[in-house]
Amino acid sequence: MNRRSAKLRVFGILAVTILSMVVTGSAFGQAKSDDAAARLRKVEDRQAIEQLLMGDYPRALDSANWAAYGALFAKDGELVMQGGATRRTGPAAIQDFFTKLPAFGGQAAPTTPSPCPVPAGTPRTMHVVTNLSLHLDGDTATDQAYWETIATRDCKSVVAGAGHYEDTLKREDGKWRFAKREIFDDLPPRTTPPPALPAVKP
User: Fold this and answer.
1) What are phi and psi for residue 201, nearest 5 degrees?
2) CA neighbor of 132 nearest in space, from 112, 146, 117, 115
3) Which CATH number do you get for residue 157?
4) Which of 23, 49, 127, 161 has the smallest set of CB atoms within 10 Å of its CB?
5) Distance of alpha carbon 180 from alpha carbon 161, whole angstroms
6) Up-side HSE of residue 200: CA atoms within 13 Å toward CB?
7) Residues whose CB is less than 8 angstroms from the CB of residue 89 and which lie 6 or more positions away in sequence, other chains included
8) Is residue 8 part of a domain?
9) What does 113-141 look like in DSSP terms, one character per residue?
10) pLDDT tens-digit profile of 166-192?
11) Sign, Cα dihedral of 87, 89, 91, 96
12) What is the pLDDT of residues 46-80, one digit of tens each?
């Protein structure tokens, strides 16, 4: 092999090596870019779900805005309550259920006036959602969270009930919605008066 051929061979090896490095570097850069985009999407999805669970849902509930409440569910979204005794599927059915329920907006039976009435337009409850445990999987997710209801009883703000949610979520029309929400009453409010204390003799 003469000197010219040797130089051409070395040049060819260098060219192939450089080209390989360029291609590999581009692929590595693309992989890093894809990975960063995936992480950003996951952060954005978590923020959107937290807004749904801890912002939009309790505000719609406490303001008795049942149209907004129903819209938080997917087209085939299911709401399950009272240990499975109550089930409603779809935004319209869920909205209709609460609209007609006496405790939430239907015609309630007359009651004794409260010594501490709630001013007109003021929410009668405040739902607090905490302790979120969330698992994301692409366009679906599952979660559990605690809830408690703050209400006015005997002129005091009290915890009227507490429990947890178990949810299946899905992305529908670009938004996260409930595919299924099951509400568990772990610490239900007292429904019977406490036992009377024995009379104290003088």
Assistant:
1) -80, 140
2) 146
3) 3.10.450.50
4) 23
5) 21
6) 2
7) 76, 77, 78, 79
8) no
9) PPSSPPPTTS-SEEEEEEEEEEEEETTEE
10) 999 999 999 999 999 999 999 866 555
11) negative
12) 999 999 999 999 999 999 999 999 999 999 999 99
Cα→Cα distances 165→8, 54, 80, 103, 200, Å: 72, 12, 10, 21, 45
Its pTM stands at: 0.72
Specify if 164 maps to a domain.
yes
Read off the pLDDT of residues 79-98 as tens digits, 9 standing for 90 and up: 999 888 999 999 999 999 99
Provide the residue type at 50 as one letter. E
What does the angle CA 86 – CA 90 – CA 94 come to, to the nearest 5 degrees? Answer: 50
User: Domain of 43?
Assistant: 31-103+124-187
Amino acid present at 34: D
Please state the domain count of the chain.
1
Q: Which long-range contacts (CB under 8 A, 24 or more apart) does 80-87 make?
A: 80/180, 80/181, 80/182, 80/183, 81/182, 81/183, 82/185
In a domain, 46, yes or no: yes
